[in-house]
Amino acid sequence: MKIPTPVGLSQRDRLSFLLRDSVLYGGAAAISKAFALITFPMLARHFSVADYGVLDYFMVLSSFLVILFIFGQDSAVARYFYEYEDRVVRCQLISQSLAFQLAGLLLLLPLLWWGAEWFANLLIEAPESARLFKIVLMQLPFLMLINFSQNLLKWTFARAQFLTMSLGFTLVQTSLLVVAVLLMDVGIQGVLVVTLCTSIVFGALGLFFVRRWLARPRDFKRIYEMLPYAIPFGVICVLAALSPTLERTIIDQLLGAEELGLYAAGTKIAMLVGLAVTAFQTAWGPFSLSLYKQEDAGETYNLVLKFFVLGMCVIVCVLTLMAQPLIKLLATDRYIGAVVLVFPLVMGLAIQATSWITEIGVSIAKRSYLNLYAYFLAVIATLASIMLLAPHFGLLGVGLGVMIGHIVKAIVASWLAQRVYPLPWHYSPVVKILGLTLLFGLLAKWLEHHWGAVAYNIAMITGMIAVLCMGWSVLFNPEERRGLIAFLRLRLVRSIL
Question: pLDDT tens digit string along 330-359?
């Protein structure tokens, strides 16, 4: 069966293709990722601020560990999948990758289980931390299967199965948590047991959905081919996933368990931007790599970049403006201290998401090791900034530290990508819009400190209007503006009809 791609489409149709897949694949992936946000109001009210911080810590830890065991294999399969047209070769590529991941899990998981008490006490001071850590370890094989199957379904454009895995997982897990928390009054351990049971079911279901792509590995030729690409991405993914865990460890040590809970709440609000980013990024990977051989790929990439940046900056302004009522609505007044985190966290996510577009050259050139420099410097910048700023500015210092890390990573990764695979990026207008958003956000924080909430709201509303007006005139030339108006008009007519 032929896999549909945007190759051969017009610029307008390519944007439609990306938009459709962002809604389908990306929307489903975003909802799945939004599980923590969906359950946030219930769990925030059920647990104390400190206990919620502990639960959030182990949730983040499970994400880090599964990324550690996958170690870049998902990125490698994604990159090499389109290198071959033969289905037999693709099956070997996929099956050898899965076998490699499971072998690593079987080798290292017993060691972690045996040293669970030592590892848990090293990471966080919490009651029954070793038992909670063991529940997380039991979940890892099934989370790996879920990740493997969802990625394969996405890259093969199997929309129905992908939606079942993404939306079904979130729906079932949320429903079970509602029953467990509201009717059975479970604690942290009970919540983790619910996530374990859901992972077992959907890990098996995902394996069933992709069974036709699996075969007995003939050898490990494809693994040897992918390892030079996968290993750097494995280190990169581990660094990216390790940073949130280390951030929480530092907060726990410098500021205490109460601030750890507030930070968890702030990240849930910032996740609203993360959902849009995830929706786009899920579709951007297959879209961009399937197009890079086309002569007009650079034109498409630039249109996507400018449209995406404008949307992200507006979302940042809106979410920053709505931070306080959102926290009161989703949690309670107990978490209102998390408001100071929202702008730096969402601005950092917007900058990171933008760099994911401009660093596509690294993936195209198969020079994944170059991203190691960007991620390593980003982690160092993040942790150093947090340790420097948090003692003086509290949680605001933590948020600024995270944002600084994202800025460092974006600059270094984009520069390296341009060195190995030059693309005709229109950097100047993009930097201007991001800089304008950053300026108004910091100005609003300063005005709030000196003049109160009214000045803060006025600054953010003014910033949003300025971003919209300047973005439309600076980002797009007259021909692009006419094309976008026609594109949006067409989408509106189709949605009405």
Answer: 777 788 888 888 899 999 989 988 988 888
